[in-house]
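Chapter review: from sequence to fold.
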Amino acid sequence: MRNNTLKLRKGALFYKVRGSYLPATWQGWLTYVPFTGFLVTVLVEAIRTQNSVSDMVYMIFPQWVAAAVVMTWLAARKS
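The token string follows.
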């Protein structure tokens, strides 16, 4: 039987799962929850304020990409 426990390095907040990162500790969740809240807030504001789908994409895309880059960089350094 295979052992599915993850080995985390000391002080790691995230663990790598297939090219992405998931929180491994409460500190990781404390970072991850505001990140997802930001993504949802941007989506809701885009839907509420923009008149067309293309305007929504132009508002959402750069902010989501920037947030994802920062979160991935942080998770990579803390995993």
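Two observations follow directly from the output. The chain has a mean pLDDT of 88. Residues 13 and 40 are 23 Å apart (CA to CA).
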